[in-house]
Write a structure and sequence with these properties.
Length: about 575
């Protein structure tokens, strides 16, 4: 039976997708997070985001309106030039639709587009990002007649780095501010633009906008917590912290008592929409103060004042690592294993922070890596079990034995990880939870590495097919084609070699669980060992079938030798684990 046209084209299509992915990931990517002074009129925001979406090469990630703040935070990403084009169009449209003379809201603001930061995401430095910020600002000032101030890494002078300083006086203070020579805009006119106000454009690191909900309506008490937490702290006073005389330094400036968390800006406000007071925070350095650390600092301060945190909300997007670290922190607080799945860690983080108190929290929409997942798509891993099996059983030559070997390795280490987690949770073994948690975390890492290799093996095969399609009319084309085939073949060998190494390493987990893990699950450790051995041998077959096409015979000889040694090692380790398992199950 002849293959259908779509089946013949399948390999080519897959490679084209992979090629585009590789090209995209090698390009410079920046994120833009403009804040528009309207959170009440969806039709206005829709017209602004339509301007962003019409720019080719830009992906709109998130639109987060707030009624009480009367402000919408928009997030999009792309290559620098398309991003600043989209930002310009959005700022222009906001200036046409938003009248600042009518604006009221809880959040500090000074313009229709209040702030517009650019954030380096991939293959671009902060200095390069700052240059694009200036390019955007120059155009906004000149073409739209909007005063523009540069801040953070794009600031033109040290005193303008801090956004709060730049925005001091807000919209209402702009007429006087613009008359002050010290506050001449970096770009645009010095005349007051009554309708659009002014805009701050900058370049900065990734910032998390995070609000914590309190069981109070008191802004003063919310501010007290904010002052305890934020890096800038509070003004130092003699005696009473509220009414006491302010302590000043030799220059006459107030001294300050630093707050608990570096890299955190915070204020308290009342959100009429929710009927509660919040602590509104910007976490500007999540390496110094992670999300869960800021949360815990607020909790301690609130409890000290007779208040309680009821939940929290993330404004805009958050990096995956932040959610995983938060989940791990709270699991450790419970003395539970942190070696659980990514999804479970996120679930624990959401529930512990109360991120679903005010509405649903959808990780697919709130985590930046998940929003970008179409860029790093892994079709096999994301398919159903049936879909994976059907695709493997089809007339297409890929996925084949290499991807299956990798997935068998995944199943093996997953079983070992399961035993570790069951052991960490076993009644009467509470004093050993950290021991098994460490094993489970190690297993999760190995599982994730092998999962990546499932699709990588198919991609490597597609790479060989594409190399063979290259033109070979001239001598130069033939040489280029030969070099491409050699490189693609080498890659098709390196992937199954990586599968072998990861699967072989997983035996350590299976052996430990067979010898000291939960005795009720010892057979699972044995099945894990069987899978690991199958993965090593299966991947080795892929190494051997591909080395025949290599011109580099020295490399071919070495990988065959190394691979054979790994298969023998896998045989030995499997026997050792099964010996322990069989002895236990026969008793």
């Amino acid at each position: 039976m002849n293959s259908l046209p779509w089946q013949k084209a399948l390999i080519s299509f897959r490679y084209d997708v992979k090629l585009k992915t590789q090209q995209l990931m090698s390009k410079q990517l920046i994120e833009c997070v403009p804040n528009f002074s309207d959170g009440l009129n969806p039709e206005v925001i829709k017209k602004i985001t339509d301007e962003i979406q019409k720019v080719k090469g830009v992906k709109l990630l998130d639109v987060d309106p707030g009624k009480a703040t009367n402000r919408t935070v928009v997030t999009f990403v792309g290559e620098p030039q398309p991003v600043i084009e989209a930002a310009y169009l959005a700022i222009k449209k906001a200036g046409e639709l938003i009248d600042m003379t009518q604006h009221q809201g809880e959040h500090p603001r000074m313009g229709a587009t209040d702030v517009c930061p650019l954030i380096p995401i991939a293959n671009i430095t902060m200095d390069e990002t700052a240059k694009y910020a200036h390019k955007l600002a120059k155009r906004v000032g000149a073409d739209l007649n909007i005063p523009v101030y540069m801040y953070e890494s794009a600031a033109t002078r040290p005193e303008r780095r801090n956004l709060a300083t730049v925005r001091s006086g807000e919209y209402e203070g702009l007429p006087q501010k613009l008359k002050d020579p010290n506050w001449k805009p970096d770009y645009g006119p010095t005349q007051f633009n009554e309708r659009s106000g002014a805009t701050a454009i900058g370049a900065r690191d990734f910032l998390i906008a995070y609000n914590i909900n309190l069981n109070t309506t008191s802004v003063r008490r919310a501010n007290s917590v904010a002052f305890d937490v934020r890096e800038n702290g509070r003004v130092k006073r003699i005696g009473n912290k509220v009414t006491g005389a302010i302590v000043k330094n030799r220059k006459g400036n107030p001294k300050r008592v630093p707050g608990a968390c570096k890299g955190v800006k915070a204020i308290g406000w009342f959100i009429e929409e929710y009927g509660v007071a919040q602590i509104s925070m910007n976490l500007t350095n999540i390496r110094v103060t992670p999300l869960h650390v800021a949360f815990e600092a607020c909790r301690k301060s609130a409890n000290k004042r007779g208040l309680r945190i009821t939940g929290s909300e993330l404004v805009g997007l958050v990096p995956l690592e932040v959610m995983l670290d938060t989940g791990k922190y709270f699991l450790k607080q419970q003395k539970r294993s942190i070696g659980v799945s990514e999804g479970e860690l996120i679930k624990i983080a959401v529930k512990s922070l109360g991120l679903d108190e005010l509405g649903d929290f959808d990780p697919r929409k709130k985590i930046i890596e998940y929003q970008l997942e179409d860029i790093t798509d892994r079709p096999l891993v994301h398919s159903t079990l049936k879909g994976f099996a059907d695709e493997t059983a089809s007339e297409s030559p890929a996925p084949g034995g290499g991807s299956i070997a990798a997935y068998v390795g995944v199943l093996g280490v997953s079983l070992g990880t399961m035993v570790a987690n069951l052991s960490a949770h076993k009644r009467g073994w509470d004093d050993r939870w950290e021991e098994f948690s460490d094993w489970a975390a190690k297993g999760q890492q190995q599982k994730d590495q092998l999962l990546k290799l499932v699709d990588e093996d198919t991609n490597a095969f597609n790479g060989i097919m594409e190399a063979f399609r290259l033109p070979k009319s001239s001598k130069a084309e033939k040489e280029s084609r030969t070099a491409a085939i050699e490189a693609a073949t080498r890659r098709a060998i390196e992937i199954p070699l990586a599968v072998m190494k990861q699967s072989l390493a997983s035996f350590e987990l299976m052996e430990a669980m067979a010898k000291s893990g939960n005795p009720n699950s010892i057979s699972d450790a044995g099945v894990g060992a069987l899978c690991a051995r199958a993965a090593v041998h299966g991947a080795y077959l892929n190494v051997k079938i591909n080395v025949g096409g290599l011109k580099d015979k020295a490399f071919a000889k070495k990988v065959v030798k190394d691979g054979l040694a790994m298969t023998k090692r896998a045989d030995k380790l499997e026997k050792e684990v099964l010996k322990v398992v069989h002895k236990a199950v026969q008793q």
